[in-house]
Amino acid sequence: MRKMVWRHTDAETLVRRGADGQFYVAARDVTAMLRDLARAFDQHAQSDGAVRPAEDRAAPARLDEETMRTVASILRAQADEMDVQLIAMAGRHPLG
């Protein structure tokens, strides 16, 4: 069994605190993370199909190939929808 590995391309995702006290992450980082997770699920679907749970769980979770591909598809769809909404917002509120 292989352990699911985080593959986000940026070593660090910048988190900032706004004037309102809330924490913010750049949308491109969020969509990149969603797509990286989707790739990881696709890769595991092509391999042995075992996904290890968090350290505090005793037994590895077994997800079948179809389930992993479905999860990957949902993650990609979420990233795509977020991109569409952000593009629409940018068109309504151009900077500069």
> Largest beta sheet: what is the strand line-up?
1-2
Share of β-strand residues: 5-15%
**Rg on CA atoms, Å:** 17 Å
Give the helix/strand class. Answer: mainly alpha
Q: Strands, helices and their partners?
A:
Blueprint: E1 15-17, E2 23-25, H1 27-46, E3 50-51, E4 61-62, H2 65-92
Helix pairs in contact: 1-2
Textual characterization of the structure:
The chain is mostly helical. The protein has 2 helices and 4 strands. It has helices at 27-46, 65-92; strands at residues 15-17, 23-25, 50-51, 61-62. The strands form 2 sheets. It has a two-stranded antiparallel sheet. Helix 1 (27-46) packs antiparallel against helix 2 (65-92). The longest helix is centred in the last third of the chain and has 28 residues, at 65-92. It is flat, with a radius of gyration of 17 Å.
Give a quick rundown of the structure.
This protein has 96 residues and is mainly alpha-helical.
List keywords for this structure.
disordered N terminus, about 100 residues, mainly alpha
